[in-house]
Fold each of these.
Amino acid sequence: MNRIDLFKRDLEEKRAVKVIAGIDNFNKELVRNVVSAAEAGSASAVDICYDEEIISMVREMTKLPVFVSSIIPSELANAVQLGADAIEVGNFDALYKKGKRVSANEVLDIVNETLRLLDGQKTFICVTVPGHINISEQISLAMKLEELGIDLIQTEGAATVSVSEAGARGLLQTAEVSISNTIELVRNTSIPIMTASGITTTTAPLAFASGASAVGVGSCVNKLNSTIAMIAVVKSLVESASRKSSNEFVNI
């Protein structure tokens, strides 16, 4: 069984946990710490930026499947040649921080150009559906991605949310849009859905209960100050995925 098959197994069992180092995180030491924590915490995969040295470093230090995220088709195609087990169109949070937005058509353009560059090479591909576009556009985009043979869709939404509460209420507010997008996409497509963007140990169980096959977690791990704390959070996420509730929210 190769690396990506391990992720596919967890995906099929609807308990996959992907730890995201960050699409704009080029700090090798921080990436190393995040990946180490992901492996020690028994995560299903890690997600890193496109950087040849970082890809090489991560491939050598972990047996976990390695996702490489970018919005540049040539980087995504080259990441496969460098040893990425999966590529991801996204994450877009780095763009949102700069005040930019990406449309459904732009996402399709990136995907189609990436597929052209891959020239039929079999690769596991995940695509982030922008959380700021309306849900009908998200569903339409997801259906088109399904026709293209995309393996996994990632939701988002935290960048569109204005959090007004502290504590658990704030965590729920942050995750609300991404989880609601998950429910709609699960209802309308056959592609596995990974809920990401603002997901934490508090809200990950809600994502799985909403029909997600996976969660993608970034800041709740990579913003911590110690590897020990990172490992503890990853373990908690993996444990909650393993004992997740049935998909009771999907039929609401």
Note: Strands lie at 16-20, 45-48, 66-70, 86-89, 124-128, 152-155, 193-196, 214-217.
Amino acid sequence: MIIYPSIDKLVDKINSKYSICSISAKRANDLQRNQNPMLDHYESPKYIGQAMEEIVSSDLVIDPESLSQN
């Protein structure tokens, strides 16, 4: 269960729960492999929580050019 950050804060930043899950998983994998944090301090000890904290802080965002404009 996710306590912090709340799903409401995440959905305010990225309006798709699927996108939140996908981006968080990819970033968590990157954090685990490369140890390249974007924030100075994290509340969560787990990589997936850290990725979600980066979304809430607006450091991790969806590249608008990667979205299809059909």
Note: The mean pLDDT is 89.
Amino acid sequence: MKNYTGKRVLVTGGAGFLGSHLCERLLNEGDEVLCVDNFYTGRRSNIAHLMDNRFFEILRHDICFPLYVEADEIYNLACPASPVHYQFDPVQTTKTSVHGAINMLGLAKRLKIKILQASTSEVYGDPSVHPQTEAYWGNVNPIGFRSCYDEGKRCAETLFFDYHRQHKLNIKVARIFNTYGPRMHPNDGRVVSNFIMQALKGQDITIYGDGSQTRSFCYVDDMVEGLVRLMQSPDGFTGPLNLGNPAEFSILELANLIIKFTGSKSRIAFKPLPPDDPQQRQPDISLAKTSLNWEPSVPLEDGLKKTIVYFKTQWNS
């Protein structure tokens, strides 16, 4: 741990996959961290190793309700982020994005502090522009099964920029593309965790569609670095800012890599593509490169190997 900074940072969704890595990073930077989570998808096991740190505090709370605490910065990461979880209770998902944003923005306004919103590449929907730049407005179905998440995050961005314009609030908005790594939930329905769990169990690797659809995969350490740099960027630089790995892989390529690295005998099974599933997803990170001097450094092959080791030790029976 570096020298104690005296800075108190609030991380909502801090017991989740990405949130727990961010909490760990901030503690290592010397910050005091208040982790807020309602444990809908977050897990205590993600933060168990932090509990003995005297600068770490955890509060069970749902940000759909107001929160009255003191802090110097807020990272708002609270929201189910995988289709399985956010479609389970879609009304609550929208509430978390919208009511949660209002409550955290209100807290930041009262405290006169900066606040970072973890938005998502899902605001681009099934993009008709490739790769996606921050200037692209998206192609989103407002009434589909994914809309609770897509439109909830889009509305949250609207709220952040309205608070910025109306109340002069210091905001940062990150559009996060597919992120993976240790502490992913094994049953979150995301493609990396799905494929690894199926491979370790020797089950068929389930690909929806023909596997030609593409994604870009960013290792969690790279993503956390981007979030921290965005928060530390000069006042007035708001984003939105794409954070992700521009290296593009097809879903079929990903499946074959995971079969190779796990040594699995799994076979690939093709199933129909779900509605509104994007065909392409790749970030243009030119703005992050020029404004933050940030770009991912962990190749997919290396990140997958680290993630597979985690799943083998934690979940392989």
Note: The mean pLDDT is 93.
Amino acid sequence: MIRAALISCVALAGCNDAAAVQRAATPDYLGVDTRLLDGDLVQFEVSIGGAALPDQLDAYADCAAAQYALIRGYGFARHVRTNLKQNGDTSTADAVYTISPSLPRGLRTIDAEVVVANCKANAIPTV
């Protein structure tokens, strides 16, 4: 009887720890600043609370760029560059993309509809 209670207690503690890890792993998205630089060139500054991973910042910026492209009536974007920085308890990415109605040349192209759907599925906000 004591053994069963002990096993249940350990199992529940494991669940609580897993839930705590999941909460800690979920980024605290702080917002997006968007600035049109020139015609089809757009800058996005995205911020995540805490020490975010570079991949999390990249995904957040991609989500913002994809949604922005759709809002402007375009179907695609291409990543140009990203600068990452950590300031206290905030991680920031300053990213630049081109937006276009057709698939642009380049390695880091984004199909806006597909990326926005993935962002929604992964609970990453867009603009």
Note: The two ends are 55 Å apart (CA to CA).
